[in-house]
Every structure is written in structure tokens, then in C-alpha cells.
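Problem statement: downstream parser choked on a complex file, so we are re-checking the raw output for the adenosine-5'-triphosphate run. The parser issue turned out to be on our end (a line-ending mismatch), but while we're here, posting the original submission so the record is complete.
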Amino acid sequence: MKSNKIPISTEGLLQWKSWGDRDPLGDVLQRALQRPRIFKNRDVMRSDYVPDRLPHRDEHIRRLGEILAPALSLSRPSNVFVYGKTGTGKTAVIRYVFKRFGEAAGKEDLPLAFAYVNCRISGTEYKVLSELCEAIGVRVPFTGLSKAEVYNRLRRGLGEKGLLLVACFDEVDALVKSYGDDLLYDLTRINEGMEGGGLSIVGTSNDLHFKDYLDPRVLSSLSEEELVFHPYTATELIDILGERATLAFREGAVPQNVINLCAALAAAEHGDARRAIDLLRVAAEVAERSGEAVVEERHVRVAQSIIERGRIFEALSTLPLHSKLLLTSLLLLAKNGVNDPISGVIYQTYREVCGLIGVEPLTDRRVSTLISELDMLGVVKSDIVNMGRRGRTRKIMLLTPPGEVEEVVENDEVLSSILNYTPSITKNKMKNP
Ligand SMILES: Nc1ncnc2c1ncn2[C@@H]1O[C@H](COP(=O)(O)OP(=O)(O)OP(=O)(O)O)[C@@H](O)[C@H]1O
Ligand SMILES: [Mg+2]
């Protein structure tokens, strides 16, 4: 009988006969079979890991704890609004406080529930409401009910069970930007006329202008209390990374200078702990992939460029279609030898490209606005140039490396089909005057 067992002797795997020396998996397998030399616990560096200790957030933890404390004596806590830039620990602090409160409530067997909903991930009002229902044990089908019905079931559930629900609406701006603030309005009114049980809301946003989107009535009831999270300083980030590194890496694998560099780079942007942790994780992965046992500063530099590339890709991939078409036009021109074209040349190419994919082109003026927007985003740079008797025009330079724009175009279902198109202007050899 044939054995299904994979031979686990390294030698056997490395000298796979049919490939001879060219075995493409040889060293991959060898490294995978080796004992991990850098990571001790990879999960600790994952973005959804909730640490047991949050250095430099004692104040915030205590403050949120004080605001929510009445829940433990079953009176409804004030709603809280939590602001702060990305990576300042809002989610981590709330999840930590909810966890500790949940444990305390569980021990005392209190009719108290905690729900954590990420509004950006949940996506729809229906989903947000059904997650709240689920948190209090009220069953709701995936679809099929009206929003009003799910809301009523939630209200009835809270009333009948006499349950106090403390719900975090993380990244609540995502919900409001898509649907307006009606649901928040209704939820802040859900306690009216309810005896026993009720709902308290902890909302978060990293958009400091978010308040402008809210109806003043919603804003005032949602932010009965406010908590602001400031960016971390480099020294604070060093402590945060240090704690994380002790759990994640083998002793001696990540020296202090590497931690300091990650902290300094993240602090130079805006004190984003997520950025600092990502830098360290990617640097460790880079070192690991090249078979080294110690992470060095050069690995952090490589990590920085990998992360930067990822960010550019993400930013460009989420641009609106016509901005992407303009970038594609710039790319096609560059690939055919026309760098820094004037606006007339881009516009002509853009129209051709629109024709190829069957999209109605925007007007000259609208395109001009889109170019200014791309300029503001730092994707292109546009300069006024004097054309002598022919007046003035704009010259547009691609600031993003063409290879990175090409990667986005290649990965776009619609745009990838025109990647090999040659703009007519480059065929006529007119190019830039
Ligand atoms: N004080 C801290 N100690 C340890 N880890 C922290 C601390 N602050 C943040 N982190 C970690 O940094 C990462 C980002 O933090 P978090 O997700 O809480 O940021 P946020 O303020 O919610 O950002 P966003 O606005 O983008 O949602 C997480 O992995 C979190 O565990
Ligand atoms: Mg968050």
C-alpha cells in the first residue's frame, strides 16, 4: 500500500531528484523546518491582539472605567465619545476595559452585557443592529426583517430581560458617512420610557471633523462624556514596543536599537502605535526570511519601504474611477516615452482610454479638478509652464513610481485590459511640444 506520509527528512525534501539543484522549494522547506529563530509568539504582533497591559494609557483606562462604573450597580452609564488619531489605542483601551468589566459582571452574575461592534467592518445599519441583538441573546435572521423590526426586537429584548447593554460603536463615522445619523439618533433614544434595562453607547472616531456630520441632538447625547486620545511620543512607543517584543520574540532577537528606530519612525509621522508594531513585525519577517537570527536596522528600512508600498497601493486602488483613468493615462504615456506631459496631451489620452473601456469622459474642467486633487494627495505634481505665444498650460509629473501605478492598474479588473494600449499621441510622434 502506498503511504500518504510526507517524508519529513530534510535531506529527502531538499534533494528532490527531478529538480536537481534548481529545486525551487528547497530552501523554503529547509527554513520552514528549522526551529523559529526570531518569533516566539507570532500572534502577539497581530493587529487584533489585545494586550494585557497598555503602557501610557492608565489615565484613559481609569477614566473610561469611571464613566462605565455605574453599570456595575445597574444604573445606565453616560454615553461616551472617544476621539483620537489612528493607532492611538482607542480600540485597545475600550476592548480592555470591556473585558475587565465583563469579567467583573460575570462573577457577580449581573444582568449586564457588553458588545463591541466595528461599524466599518459590519458595514450596514442592519448588521450593526443585529450584532447588538446577538449580544443580548435575541436571534435575528441575516436578512429579511426591516430595520425597524430589528430595532424593536432589540428594545423589547432589553426591556424583557431587564438587561443593561454597553455597546461600543467603533469607527462609527463609517456608519454615519454611509447612512447618516438616523440610527444613532434612534439608539440614543432607545431608553426613553424603558423601565429596567437600557443601552449605553461608547462611540469612536479618528476623523476629527466627524462632529460636523452629526445632528446637534445626536452629538449632545452621544458625547455626554468625551475622551481624547493623543498621539504617542517616541519614548512612549519604545515602551509599548518593548513590552510587545518581550512576548513576541526570542531573547536577543530584537535589540534595543531596532525598537528605538521603529518607535522614532512611527513617532515622526504621528505617534501611531499600529505603525510602530507593523514596522517591527515586518522587519522581523524580513530578517526571518533571509535566515537571520537577529533583526537589524537595515531590516527596519526594508520594512518601511514594504509598508509604504502597501500604503500607496491601498491609496491608489481606492481612488475614484476617473482619477484612476487619469493615472493610467499618465502611465501609458510614460511607458511610451512621454514623461511629464502637458494637460492637453493627458486629456487626449484620457479620452481615448475612456473610449476603450466604454466610459463617458468628464469635461476638461472636471479633469483639471481631479488633477489638482491628485496633486494634493501627492500622487502627481502639476506646474504651470509658459508656452510663449501659445499661452500657459500645466505640466503634470507622476510622483509615484510608475511600477507602483502599474501594479494598481494590473490588479484592477477593468483597467488591466488597457495596460498595453499605445496612446495615439505617441504614435504621431507629436509628444510634448
Ligand atoms: N498603550 C498601548 N500599549 C500597547 N499596545 C498598544 C497601545 N496603544 C495601542 N496599542 C496597539 O497598537 C495598535 C493600534 O491600536 P488601536 O487599534 O487601539 O488604535 P486606534 O486608536 O483604535 O486606531 P484607529 O483609529 O485606526 O482604529 C494595536 O495593535 C494596539 O494593540
Ligand atoms: Mg480602532
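For whoever reads this later: Residues 3 and 9 are 15 Å apart (CA to CA).
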